[in-house]
Prior knowledge:
By secondary structure, this protein is an alpha/beta fold. The chain has one domain (about 15-160): 3-Layer(aba) Sandwich (Glutaredoxin). Helix content is about 30%, strand content about 20%. It has four helices and nine strands; from the N terminus they run βββαβαβαβββαβ. It has helices at about 40-55, 75-85, 95-100, 125-140; strands at about 15, 20-25, 30-35, 65-70, 90, 110, 120-125, 125, 160. It has a five-stranded mixed beta sheet with strand order 5-4-3-6-7, with helices on one face. A two-stranded antiparallel ribbon has the order 1-2. A two-stranded antiparallel sheet has the order 8-9. Strand 6 (about 110) and strand 7 (about 120-125) form a beta hairpin. The longest helix has 16 residues, at about 40-55.
Amino acid sequence: MATVAVGERAPGLALRGLDGQTYRLHEATGPVLAVFFKVSCETCRLAFPYFERLFQAYPQGGWHLWGISQDSSSDSQAFVEEHGVTFPILLDADWAISQAYDPEGVPTSFLIGPGAEVTRVVPAFQKAALNELSATIAGYVGAEPAVIIPDNDPAPPFRPG
């Protein structure tokens, strides 16, 4: 298998979240940013506060940010609490969805546009890519683009997963 690429149709996605709801890609209104992660991943720990900033930057309803955890419910809940994550965390403990998307590493983000087409794939942690994702989402929701990571932020410009 190979990582789902830009321009390809996103594999179906139906996972239960930590909140008990089931999230289905085909029922989502607007684009979905799906971020695959593991709680033990140091790069994920670096990235998730910025994903939270992205989530808070735009009104909800016109787009979705879903973290897809490859860990247990209890470990995922501890991660959420430690990092102050408020967006939905979906559980893929058996890795069925992860295998379908086949990210090369974690974190990997897939921006899935209307019609379920993958419009962007961002592996690892990349400052510039997060700001570009922000601008793309702003276009989808009709908002001014928010800078998620300013130039003077101390995070490294890139960190592999």
